[in-house]
Design a protein that fits this description.
Blueprint: H1 2-51, E1 55-63, E2 66-73, E3 82-88, E4 91-97, E5 105-111, E6 118-123, E7 131-134
Length: 135
């Protein structure tokens, strides 16, 4: 009986070890899948949100620290409210533009110190889609 008992104990021990390893591996796979899918969802959401911001900046003027321009919301834009970021050098200003309907314009005035006669505009969270402008 001693030999048979040893085989049973060894079999139970190996089965338990296999189950623990399988559970650990399964939980690791679930954790990796959850993290990667949540990252993909977050980045895709921002990218898809940015697609709808289609605008142009026209009639740019800069005098005495006041930047003025006309913002034209394109005919195929699907956004009527824009949180616009204006960036020049290290200086960033955010302005809320409400009710700029499709294919209309709105005059924008912003007090900002422009560096090197250039600035960028982009919708909030859409820095990769920034438009560069020269004065």
């Amino acid at each position: 009986m001693g030999e048979r008992t040893r085989k049973i104990v060894s079999s139970v021990f190996l089965l338990t070890l296999f189950l623990v390893a399988a559970i650990y591996t399964g939980l690791a796979i679930v954790r990796i899948y959850t993290q990667s899918s949540s990252y993909s969802t977050e980045t895709s959401k921002n990218s898809l949100d940015c697609v709808g911001y289609i605008y142009s900046v026209e009639a740019i003027k800069y005098e005495n620290g006041l930047l003025s321009f006309t913002l034209r919301n394109a005919a195929h834009s699907d956004k009527e409210n824009i949180n616009l970021i204006i960036k020049s050098g290290n200086i960033t200003k955010e302005i809320e533009i409400r009710n700029i309907y499709v294919d209309t314009t709105k005059r924008i005035d912003v007090a900002i110190d422009i560096k090197n006669n250039t600035f960028e505009t982009y919708a909030k969270n859409c820095e990769n889609d920034a438009l560069k402008h020269a004065i």
